[in-house]
Amino acid sequence: MPQRDYLFTSESVSEGHPDKICDMISDAVVDEFLSSTRDARVACETLTTTNLVVLAGEVRGDVPHDRIEQIVRQTIKNIGYEQAGFHHAKAEVMIRLHAQSADIAQGVDATGNKDIGAGDQGIMFGYACRETPELMPAPLQFAHQILKRMAEARHAGREKGLGPDAKSQVTLIYKGGKPVAAASVVVSTQHAEGLTQADVREIVRPYVESVLPKGWMCPEAEFYVNPTGKFVIGGPDGDAGLTGRKIIVDTYGGAAPHGGGAFSGKDPTKVDRSAAYAARHMAKNIVAADLAERCTIQLAYAIGVSKPLAIYLDLHGTGRVDEARLEKAVAEVADFSPRGIRDRLGLYRPIYARTAAYGHFGREPEADGGFSWEKTDLVEALKSALS
Q: What is the pTM of this model?
C-alpha cells in the first residue's frame, strides 16, 4: 500500500538564478530561429559566469551572430542584471554555434515516403494530479508562485531591495494522500547591501502567505529566509550557470518520473521537449475528464523513427476506467509522432522563451499558442473513445 501520511518537498528557482538565465537565453535563441523559419533546427547550450556568456551548439537557419548577441544582452537586461559582476552591456558574449550535423538531419527530416523522425532517442514523462486547480503537484506550484510574485514586484519597482537571483523550497504535510498544510518554507533571495536577514524575512513573508492557502503557513521556526544570513553577491557572479540543470524544477518537482532530457534550447523536433509536452497534455486531459485523480504517461522514441516505440500509462490506483482500455483510447485520440505532436500543439511557433522560468507546466494557455499543452481540449474525445 502506498504511504498516505507524509511530507513532500519541491523547489523552484527564479529567472535570475544562473541556470535559469541560461535556459532563458537558450530559449530566446530558439524563438529567434523559429521566427526566421518554421523548419529551423536549434540545439543551443548556454554557460554563464562572471561577466561572460558562452553559447554553443548546432543550428539550421539564418540568424546572424550580431543578432544573437543582441538577444543575449536583451534577455539579461529584461531579467534585471546591471551589477558589476554581471551586466547586460558589459558582459563578454562568445557565440560558438555551428551547422546541424548532416547525419542527424537525415534522420529527422521528411524525405519521400519518410515522415519527420524523432530528433533523438529517449523517454519522456507527463503527469497530472488534482492537488491544485492547474492539476499540478502543490509543493511545486506554490514554490513557483512565491518566486513569480516576488519577481513581479521587483520588476514593477515595488521591492527595490530584492535582486534577481532567488530560490524557494516548500515542504507540505500530506494526510490521507492529500496536502493539508506547510511544514516548512525556505526562500533565499539576493538583496541590496545594508538589508539585514530580518529585513529580508519581512519582505518575503507576505509573498509566501499570499500563495499558501489560508491557515497553511508553516510554524515560524520552520520559515527560513536566507539561512546563510547574507545574499548580496548573486547570479553568475556568485555561481556559474548552465542550460538544462533544473529539469525537476521545470517539470513536476520530483512528484513524477523524469526521462532525463532538458527542454530549453531545443527546437520541437527534439522529442525531449515536444513529447514531454504531449505527455503532459494527455495526462492533464485524463485527469480533467475525471478518469483518474492522478496520471503518469511515458513515451519512448528512437532517433529518426516517426512513431513512438511505446506508450505506458499509470493511474496510481485512482483510475475510474481500465488502464489497458485507456491506453488504447489515448493512442486513438492523439497522434504521438513528432509531426503529429507539433501540428496538434502548434509547436513551430516562437513560444519558448516564456516557458524557461517558473515551470513549463501548470501555466495558462495563451492566445498566440503559448502553453498549448495546458489546454483541456481532449476531454470529450477521450470520453467518446471510451464509450
A: 0.94
The catalytic site residues sit at: 17, 19-20, 45, 58, 167, 231, 239-240, 245-246, 266, 270, 272
Rounded CA-CA distance 298/85 in Å is: 42
**Pairwise CA distance, residues 364 & 148, whole Å:** 14
- Residue 241, classed as helix, strand or coil, is strand
Q: Which three cell numbers stand for residue 68?
A: 544573437
Handedness of CA 174, 175, 177, 179 (dihedral sign): negative
pLDDT by residue (tens digit) across 195-211? 999 999 999 999 999 99
How many Å from the N-terminal Cα to the C-terminal Cα in the chain? Answer: 31
With a CB cutoff of 8 Å and minimum separation 6, the contacts of 189 are: 14, 150, 162, 163, 165, 166, 167, 200, 204, 225, 226, 231
**pLDDT of 301-344, one tens digit each?**
998 888 899 999 999 999 999 999 999 999 999 999 999 999 99
Q: How far apart are CA 190 and CA 86, in angstroms?
A: 14
Is 80 exceeded by the pLDDT of residue 113? no
Confidence of residue 292 (pLDDT cuts 50, 70, 90): very high
Longest CA–CA span in the chain (Å) reads 66
